[in-house]
Amino acid sequence: MRHSGSCHCGAVQFEVDVPDQVDVEDCNCSICQMSGFLHLIVPQRDFKLLAGRDQLSTYRFNTSVAEHLFCKICGIKPFYVPRSNPDGIDVNLRCLKTRPSHVNVLKFDGQNWEQVGPSLRDKSR
């Protein structure tokens, strides 16, 4: 199913194709805990940026592999390129206007990313 999403102000608009039943990760790492990001990792082919490329700002920290993308206007991070799946897109479930009918929220121990991060590597395939 196709779902549309955006940042808070609407400058950044996107679509994502996901099944009606999905698993999302609720991560306890420093950035996710502060921002409330719920991770829905998809292959890049299932994601389409519709508007706002010029309104995105990039933030990288720690290993500088993940490309955190924020709206320059409202500061919301609706999606990013994750360290675990650099060939995919990690969409914030909370930024979708409509959501899959069945969402299973899984606790993810991002504070211990080096040990548990590899468990996510196949999500973008």
In a nutshell, what does this entry contain?
The protein is mainly β and 125 residues long. The protein contains 2 helices and 10 strands. The protein has helices at 30-35, 113-116, and strands at 2-6, 13-17, 21-27, 38-43, 47-51, 56-59, 67-71, 79-81, 88-92, 102-108.
Structure description:
The chain is mainly β. The protein has a single domain (2-113), classed as Beta Complex (Metal Binding Protein, Guanine Nucleotide Exchange Factor, Chain A). Helices cover 8% and strands 42% of the residues. The protein is built from 2 helices and 10 strands. The chain has helices at residues 30-35, 113-116; strands at residues 2-6, 13-17, 21-27, 38-43, 47-51, 56-59, 67-71, 79-81, 88-92, 102-108. The strands form 2 sheets. Strands 6-7-8-9-4-3-10 form a 7-stranded mixed β-sheet, with no helix packed on it. A hairpin with a 6-residue loop joins strand 8 (79-81) and strand 9 (88-92). The two termini are 17 Å apart. The mean pLDDT is 95.
